Amino acid sequence: xxxxxxxxxxxxxxxxxxxxxxxxxxxxxxxxxxxxxxxxxxxxxxxxxxxxxxxxxxxxxxxxxxxxxxxxxxxxxxxxxxxxxxxxxxxxxxxxxxxxxxxxxxxxxxxxxxxxxxxxxxxxxxxxxxxxxxxxxxxxxxxxxxxxxxxxxxxxxxxxxxxxxxxxxxxxxxxxxxxxxxxxxxxxxxxxxxxxxxxxxxxxxxxxxxxxxxxxxxxxxxxxxxxxxxxxxxxxxxxxxxxxxxxxxxxxxxxxxxxxxxxxxxxxxxxxxxxxxxxxxxxxxxxxxxxxxxxxxxxxxxxxxxxxxxxxxxxxxxxxxxxxxxxxxxxxxxxxxx
Amino acid sequence: xxxxxxxxxxxxxxxxxxxxxxxxxxxxxxxxxxxxxxxxxxxxxxxxxxxxxxxxxxxxxxxxxxxxxxxxxxxxxxxxxxxxxxxxxxxxxxxxxxxxxxxxxxxxxxxxxxxxxxxxxxxxxxxxxxxxxxxxxxxxxxxxxxxxxxxxxxxxxxxxxxxxxxxxxxxxxxxxxxxxxxxxxxxxxxxxxxxxxxxxxxxxxxxxxxxxxxxxxxxxxxxxxxxxxxxxxxxxxxxxxxxxxxxxxxxxxxxxxxxxxxxxxxx
Lengths: 338, 267
Description:
The complex is a heterodimer. Helices cover 72% and strands 0% of the residues of chain A. Chain A is mostly helical. By secondary structure, chain B is an alpha/beta fold. The termini of chain B are close together. In chain B, a hairpin with a 2-residue loop joins strand 1 (32-43) and strand 2. Chain B has eleven helices and ten strands. Chains A and B meet through helix 8 and helix 9 of A and helix 3, strand 6, helix 4, helix 5 and helix 7 of B. Chain A: InterPro entries: ABC_transp_permease, LivM-like.
């Protein structure tokens, strides 16, 4: 806070990473005509997965609140933003101006995110006083309720879902939002204020005893997480072009939780890699068709058993020490042999 | 040395002779920092505290001793707002704090160091200390407090960039106390600072507790199973037994009490 922080020098500059990722996004979208559409599809899916996983990581990984309702927040964002664009696109008032369309799309995404954040606030305020299993149950319940609600609103398609959503999502949008999500959440958690999220996770009683309002931290985490989930939902809707309530069910939430656990709780890089991996895996396994999901599940079990603290949770210091020891051992052996 | 598991013989309510046995070590004239009046706490159907009343004068060290499950930790957690009282009142510096939230209580200068070295293992020592000053806005004053903490515990300064989870037990306890001091408390509640710490370090920690009390005038309510040590550094003591106060008096008097000796001081 007031003392010099030399560690910020060691840490990779998040602003630089953000800039580099945005530039990459621009580059890819500039050449998107030349790239394989399948590749672009997978890349878009990956980006959306990254937004979902990193935003859930703020809630579950950093703040330690086990939420099973992330797909619910995603669906709120998806329906709001797709509802807006679909209703207005019907008359095509914007014509074909790319600029107007982009601004319009951005606005709808933001509204979707805000809607999801509001839903997060409504669920969070009463339920974040609960701990552990109870919170998981409440968020699970929320996810199911929101799904049933969307199933019964006829103007947005009911159980048949919402169709004819304009195809606004491009790789550029997804990469930009993914980079923004990572940047915002990383900066938030590593700020002086944000260390309170980790403190809440590490020891709630100690955090309260030194004067942290842990309930407020949990609500902030929940609302910010829900906002980005809502944005991801909006991107998803304008990418798939049709959404059905059952697409945002419990299984989807579990999939996101899985990315966070596999990547390692509170490990941003790990969670990003896990999101990429879990999106790629079903694609790579496509050739074996029928056995695909069986193998996918098996792989997950093996990964969880062998690396329970996250696939990418490596102790770099210990690894380096081990390597150093090994090399000196072999060197001395060689010396002795001579 | 540690508390005996067998229940202490029922002590008929006669704290009066004890109090009169010797001139009280704590000054009666001192204003009361913390006054607890007839506190009842229960967890569901189980009552944990049954009518606790105690006083801590400003600037004093008062200890709360008793065996496992006597209600010592519950008492502290209720005082800091982590657990809600069923009935009874808590006054801190004249103000009723019974219904306040933990962060509001900390803001008033009553800080609690929880049991079992509750530091934030993923945060560095530096960040842990910063979290302690969470409610303070004046950066210069916080920096000054940080220096005071480093003078008190030089070890913390050496380990500033290390994550707290990698510290030894004694160092974690120092950090927990240092972190509490960062909130510039007027009153410190320590829950078993000797728990699970190397014997050599226990005396260091206790010396520091006395130093905090003497040099900064911070009143201390100390909960301890190590009754011998607690009675040595405190002026007044309360003996808690299954949720009520079984005995109280000036620490030197209690130290020589036969019943207490048999039950808590190992004969």
